[in-house]
């Protein structure tokens, strides 16, 4: 909460010889795919007389060979994509037991969390850049524009996989992705027989959860997927209770082999922990107050999200794929809390302020359409994708202007009291945005070993803000931005590839739909990245490793005017350089290893802020919430028949809570483990321990540089999972 102020075609489709049916199916396609008409180029759309070769891979094939939806719109494999891409599979999610989506995401390379209740718990850090304006999160490839992050989905039950693209991705998804993109892909209908599954979990801290899933083919033309889950916990701080519920459903229709339509709907309800951190006492964290919660007793946080999507895919020939997606997103978020806590050395009490009541009502409706063509150019194999995005979004912000105090409290025995505010809680402003984007991407095979990948995207936004108190238009503004990427992949020998890329990206100065009149005068920030890396699979696909080195420079930061500290100017710069490496391998027949490490150096090159009315340079300092070392390890061991022992380490290096780099959030390493018993072919029982060594650490700072959020301590849970 900022104070602004392609699926594969289904198997087993039965063809009909009825001309009437075929005629009707063609009419249906024409109606549903009307937005795709632009893509039907005659030169590319001719049916091929020879079918493409189909390669059937064994289970031992490397993850580098699997097609991805996130790193490109050409459905390239990780090996053929000139960028750092990674997939967290459903199998990995189950083995690690991460119920929280953010916990699952941060096991990928170089990704850390700086989530708190004010940003919907979703903010991430990647490659030296932080928050929702620099690290984008998608749901099934769809982007939600907003002000305070994405609050759905929040658990992993309905998730099929998580795809991570590190580095600038504006050429694919628009501004706001200079650090990377996280694409959460839900479970979808399949052509397999109908199967059901149920899962129940109980654990420490009052943890209890229940989940149900079902999916498969209804008949030769219809298939479905349904998932529901609920979760409750008492939390790891005083009055740290939380709860969540989610439901997702999808129905797919395959009238003919080359055409499919899918209607999906998902909704979520969350009441996260009403905990905004623990203040430093005399400049240090006192262990005696580690679990204290200084919020008011009647505090409240609630998120309500709804996602609806109608997607169609048409494959008129082996060389053409056309996809279109119509979607509607609605998010309602509400906060009522005392959010700012500061230790008063003269009284020995915690002074509470920032009595905040806020409501966000947001909607977004849009369409994304693209077409991919396979053919030849200059006698070489070539793929090209063309498409557009259009959407309209509205955001209404209600608040009480964030004033008032809930009184001071004893640090060690706080009396929470009640929420009070003399300022009325009313709608303050409404932002509206109309956006469109045009994009193109091309892959050309120069030789059998060497390929070039190039892409470009143009975005345009019309934004307006209504002052609902004064009844006037606060501002009206337009933004345009062009991003590009040029990359190459060279196969040094079978299984080993070298890649390089250069790209240009853009980040907004703040959340688009919460853009204030003051920030509206500034343009988007821009950045450039240069990256080089290696990718290799070995042992007949049973292992793979990657190595990437990169340099990113971001310009046009908002910095203080040296001549007038009260004013901001857009001339600042920050940069990051780093190295990332991953390793995944079947060490032995019964042992599997997954590991990654990221090292980076992030700095302000040209940045100043106002301190006591004086402009102070932060040049050479590390930006806040940016760790310079991140590592993850997970090992699974089939120690006996039907028994699996697994465990992993998560390491996050030191970070700074302030731009002056005087307040350091210490490095930490946590250890998780699990013991799983496969009682039957369809039933498993798993005992899990998280942070089993009970490492005390702080995840991020909130509002003030001396108000830190305590990380979760030791906990255990037992899970029963059954398929039928």
Automatic annotation (TrEMBL):
Keyword field contains Oxidoreductase: no
This protein's UniProt keywords: Cell outer membrane, Membrane, Receptor, TonB box, Transmembrane, Transmembrane beta strand, Transport
Location of the TonB-dependent receptor-like beta-barrel domain: 238-692
Occurrences of domain TonB-dependent receptor plug (ranges): 78-181
Residues of the signal peptide: none
Entry GO terms, CC: cell outer membrane
Pfam families xrefs: Plug (PF07715), TonB_dep_Rec_b-barrel (PF00593)
Subcellular location: Cell outer membrane
GO biological process, one term: siderophore transport
Xref: CDD domains: ligand_gated_channel (cd01347)
GO molecular function: siderophore uptake transmembrane transporter activity; signaling receptor activity
Main location: membrane
Keyword Transmembrane: yes
Membrane topology reported for the UniProt record: Multi-pass membrane protein
Classification via NCBIfam families: TonB-siderophor (TIGR01783)
Family: Belongs to the TonB-dependent receptor family.
The protein's name: Iron complex outermembrane recepter protein
Species: Delftia lacustris
